[in-house]
């Protein structure tokens, strides 16, 4: 029996990136797609709990079933695994995202929210992102790396409770130097809200910001991407900072 691959994203079911990922995944097994109806970028790990979810089917044929849902990327994973996958997925894929999800961006990303949810459900999962926000981005340079990583994950598996955050530089395939397993760079967004006024004179605020990452080490994802490598960062749902456990236990035991 072919492996089953579940695909979602946060850019919405019409995005070029998810079409590219679906085409590649179909080379490796049976595919179920469950993607958001609308762009859900920046939704992180949000879920829909105050209203019902609606699902529409686009394609149902041998080897491929494609649906879209009026919920978040995490909703898509949870719903697809329970109701739309004929068997447990061997791999959950999210993307290919239009834009970076490296370093601190993983906290905000709907693409990676779906990946982390799949990992929490006990499934192997990978998020793919291309450093190109253009809706008509060219994904041909990313395709060989995506194909290589999917094949390796299916053949060798991933560590338990670990998923992969894969970011791909905006380069032709023959200019990508290879794959590098990295840690997240220490970076932040210098956020600012720009105050504007609508035609009736009513104020509103628009989020802007500048990404700041100074001198990332050569073991980090930002360095890898800036130097022509695909970055692969292992992540997991447990946010516990284990090195602090003993210190904080001693601190609070005397309170």
Explained architecture:
- The chain contains six helices and eleven strands.
- Helix content is 24%, strand content 30%.
- It is globular.
- The model has no long low-confidence stretch (mean pLDDT 95).
- Helix 2 (73-84) packs parallel to helix 3.
- The protein has one domain: Survival protein SurE-like phosphatase/nucleotidase (Stationary-phase Survival Protein Sure Homolog, Chain: A, 3-Layer(aba) Sandwich).
- The strands form two sheets. The chain has a nine-stranded mixed beta sheet with strand order 3-4-2-1-5-6-7-11-8, sandwiched between helices. It has a two-stranded antiparallel ribbon with strand order 9-10.
- It has 255 residues and is α/β, with parallel strands linked by helices.
**What is the tally of beta strands?**
11
Percentage of β-strand residues: 25-35%
Roughly how much helix do the residues carry, as a percent range?
A: 10-25%
CATH class: Alpha Beta
Can you list the strand order of the major beta sheet? 3-4-2-1-5-6-7-11-8
Q: How does the overall form come out from the CA principal axes?
A: globular
- Going by helix content, strand content and strand pairing, the class is alpha/beta
Weakly predicted, low-confidence segments: none
* CATH level 4 superfamily: Survival protein SurE-like phosphatase/nucleotidase
Per CATH, what is the topology?
Stationary-phase Survival Protein Sure Homolog, Chain: A
Q: Tell me which CATH architecture applies here.
A: 3-Layer(aba) Sandwich
Q: What distance lies between the first and last C-alpha atoms, to the nearest angstrom?
A: 58 Å
Q: How many distinct domains?
A: 1
């Amino acid at each position: 029996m072919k492996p089953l691959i579940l695909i979602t994203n946060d850019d919405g079911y019409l995005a070029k990136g998810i079409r590219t990922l679906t085409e590649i995944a179909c080379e490796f097994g049976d595919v179920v797609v469950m993607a958001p109806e609308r762009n859900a970028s920046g939704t992180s790990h949000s879920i829909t709990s105050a209203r019902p979810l609606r699902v529409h089917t686009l394609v149902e044929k041998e080897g491929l079933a494609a649906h879209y849902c009026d919920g978040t990327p995490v909703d898509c994973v949870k719903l697809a695994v329970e109701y739309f996958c004929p068997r447990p997925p061997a791999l959950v894929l999210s993307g290919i995202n239009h834009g970076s999800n490296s370093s601190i961006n993983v906290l905000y990303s709907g693409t990676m929210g779906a990946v982390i949810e799949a990992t929490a459900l006990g499934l192997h999962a990978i998020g793919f992102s291309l450093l190109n926000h253009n809706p008509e981005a060219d994904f041909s340079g990313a395709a060989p790396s995506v194909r290589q990583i999917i094949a390796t994950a299916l053949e060798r598996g991933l560590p338990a409770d670990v998923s992969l955050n894969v970011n791909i530089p905006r380069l032709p395939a023959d200019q990508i130097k290879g794959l590098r397993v990295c840690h997240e760079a220490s970076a932040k967004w210098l956020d600012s809200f720009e105050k504007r006024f609508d035609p009736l004179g009513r104020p509103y605020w628009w989020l802007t910001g500048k990404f700041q990452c100074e001198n990332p080490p050569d073991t980090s994802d930002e360095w890898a991407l800036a130097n022509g490598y695909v970055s692969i960062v292992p992540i997991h749902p447990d946010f516990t900072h284990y090195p602090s456990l003993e210190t904080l236990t001693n601190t609070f035991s005397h309170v």
